[in-house]
Design goal:
Layout: E1 9-13, H1 68-82, H2 94-101, H3 105-117, E2 121-124, E3 128-131, E4 146-148, E5 157-167, H4 170-175, E6 183-193, E7 196-206, H5 215-220, H6 225-233, E8 239-248, H7 251-257, E9 264-274, E10 278-287, E11 292-294
Antiparallel strand pairs: 1-8, 2-3, 4-11, 5-6, 6-7, 7-10, 8-9, 9-10
Helix pairs in contact: 1-3, 2-3
C-alpha cells in the first residue's frame, strides 16, 4: 500500500498471537426480552390498540464454542503468563497435563503443538517440552531479519548511543497503548557487522515495566537485548508486527551510518507484544542493505 508520503509500505506479522484467555465450552445464554410497561389492573390509557406498536423479541445470540484443545492451550498459556514455569524450564509431561486438566493425552498434544508453532514452548527429543527463552541460540535471529548477502548470519556488535527517560509522544503512546505523557525508556543504539555500521535503532519501552534499565546495564549485558528484558524485567516478547518502507538517509543518520546523505535505507517499525497481546516495545530501525537483505519466512 502507499503511505502518506507516497512510499510503499509492507506490513508483516512475525509471529502468531498467543491465546491468553480460555473460552468456555458452554453456550452463551440469551437475554430475556422485557414485556410492556403497563401493570395489571392499572387505569385504562387513552391509547387505542391500533396506536400501540408491537415489539418483536430480540434475537438470541448464537452459542459460541471453542475446541477443547484450544481451551487447554489457553490454560497452559495462562500458567506461562503467571510464571508457573519460567523461561527455559521443563513443563509437565503430556500425561501429567492430561491428568491435571482431565482430558485425553491427544488433546494436550494438539495444544502443545500449537504452542510450539507459536514459539512459546520448544520440544527436545528425549528430554521433554521446555518454555522457550530468548537466551537460546536459535531465538537470537527470530527478530533480527537482516542477513548478509553471502555467508551465514552473525551477531552484530552493539554500541549504546543514548538511554534516557522521557514522556511518551502521542504516536509512541498510541502504539504502546499508553496515555500521552506516560513515562517511557528511550534507547538509541548502533549495530555493526565486521566493523561496518549497518543498523541504527531507536526503542521505546513502557517505563513502569522497565524500571532500573540503564545504559550501564545494557552495556554490561553480553547476550541479546531480549534476553536481558526476559531475565531482568520478566518481560518476554511473544510476537511482533512490522511496517517496512524505503527512505533516504538524512544528515544525522548518514553521519551515524558513515554513508552519504540521501543513501537509500530500509526502515522497519516494529511493535512487540508479550503475553495477553500487550504491547511492550516500539522499535524503529534504519538498515543499510548494500551487503545485507531483509529475510522473512512465511508459513
Amino acid at each position: 500500500m502507499l503511505d502518506g508520503w507516497g512510499a510503499f509500505v509492507v506490513k508483516l506479522r512475525l509471529m502468531n498471537p498467543a491465546t491468553s484467555n480460555p473460552v468456555s465450552n458452554e453456550p452463551v445464554s440469551a437475554a430475556t426480552a422485557s414485556g410492556g410497561t403497563g401493570a395489571p389492573g392499572a387505569a385504562a390509557s387513552s391509547a387505542t390498540p391500533s396506536s400501540t406498536a408491537s415489539v418483536a423479541p430480540a434475537a438470541a445470540p448464537s452459542p459460541t464454542f471453542s475446541p477443547l484443545y484450544q481451551q487447554i492451550k489457553a490454560l497452559i498459556t495462562q500458567s506461562l503468563q503467571a510464571g508457573e514455569w519460567k523461561p527455559g524450564e521443563l513443563i509437565p509431561s503430556e500425561v501429567e497435563l492430561a491428568a491435571r486438566f482431565k482430558v485425553s493425552q491427544g488433546t494436550v498434544r494438539k495444544a502443545i503443538d500449537e504452542l510450539s508453532n507459536e514459539n512459546l514452548v520448544v520440544r527436545r527429543q528425549g528430554k521433554g517440552t521446555f518454555v522457550s527463552t530468548h537466551h537460546e541460540e536459535r531465538a537470537h535471529f527470530r527478530f533480527l531479519k537482516l542477513v548478509p548477502d553471502e555467508g551465514v548470519p552473525v551477531h552484530p556488535d552493539n554500541r549504546i548511543l543514548e538511554v534516557r527517560r522521557l514522556r511518551a509522544p502521542a504516536e509512541v503512546a498510541r502504539l504502546l497503548d499508553l496515555k500521552a505523557g506516560d513515562g517511557v525508556v528511550y534507547i538509541k543504539r548502533l549495530m555493526s557487522f565486521a566493523g561496518a555500521p549497518t543498523i541504527l535503532e531507536e526503542l521505546w519501552l513502557p517505563g513502569t515495566l522497565f524500571k532500573g534499565l540503564t545504559a550501564e546495564k545494557l552495556e554490561e549485558y553480553k547476550g541479546p537485548m531480549y534476553g536481558l528484558f526476559e531475565s531482568e524485567f520478566g518481560t518476554r516478547m511473544i510476537r511482533a508486527t512490522e511496517k517496512i518502507r524505503a527512505l533516504a538517509a538524512d544528515e544525522a543518520t548518514a553521519q551515524q551510518l558513515q554513508v552519504p546523505a540521501g543513501t537509500p535505507l530500509l526502515c522497519a517499525e516494529r511493535v512487540s507484544f508479550t503475553y495477553g497481546d500487550k504491547a511492550v516495545e516500539l522499535r524503529r530501525g534504519l538498515y543499510l542493505t548494500a551487503q545485507h537483505h531483509y529475510q522473512n519466512e512465511l508459513s
